[in-house]
Amino acid sequence: MIIGTGTDITEVKRLKQAVEKWGTVFLNRVFTKKELENAKTRGSLYQHLAGRFAAKEAIFKALGDKNLAWKDAQILNNKEGKPFCEILNGKGKKIDIHISISHVKNYATAFAIITEKA
């Protein structure tokens, strides 16, 4: 059963400006250590991070849980490259999160569907 859906679009330029202005303070507030390590291996750092940012926003909208923090949602890729989300700190035990992320030069977008765990 679907619990919720969410979508978000992020301007790559705005994310880049936030990183340039606040640096590691911003990055460490929004992204987990694993997410940042993974981002460093990508060809387009800011597009990649903007996609993860949009995905987190989409997940938060779909869940509707105001108690979730940025680093409670960790977005990585499986060995085939498909993005997936883990809700950390034991908050996501009864749900499955399905996400899709796309980006072009100026924008990143993401969509999330939350379902009950089978």
Polypeptide structure, described:
The protein has helices at residues 12-30, 33-39, 45-63, and strands at 2-11, 73-77, 83-87, 95-103, 107-116. With 118 residues, the protein is α+β, with helices and mostly antiparallel strands. A 3-stranded antiparallel beta sheet has the order 1-5-4. A hairpin with a 3-residue loop joins strand 4 and strand 5 (107-116). Helix 1 (12-30) packs across helix 3.
Strand order of the largest sheet: 1-5-4
Sketch the major β-sheet. Answer: 3 strands, antiparallel
Instruction: List unreliable stretches of 5+ residues.
Output: none
User: How helix-rich are the residues, as a percent range?
Assistant: 25-40%
Q: What is the averaged pLDDT score?
A: 94
- Round the Cα radius of gyration to an integer and report it: 14 Å
Order of helices and strands: EHHHEEEE
Alpha-beta classification: alpha+beta
The rounded distance between the terminal residues' Cα atoms is: 9 Å
Please indicate the percent range of residues in DSSP E strands (runs of 2 or more). Answer: 25-35%
**Tally of helical runs:** 3
The coarse overall form would be globular
Number of strands: 5
Please give the structural blueprint.
Layout: E1 2-11, H1 12-30, H2 33-39, H3 45-63, E2 73-77, E3 83-87, E4 95-103, E5 107-116
Antiparallel strand pairs: 1-5, 2-3, 4-5
Descriptive keywords:
118 residues, alpha+beta, 38% helix
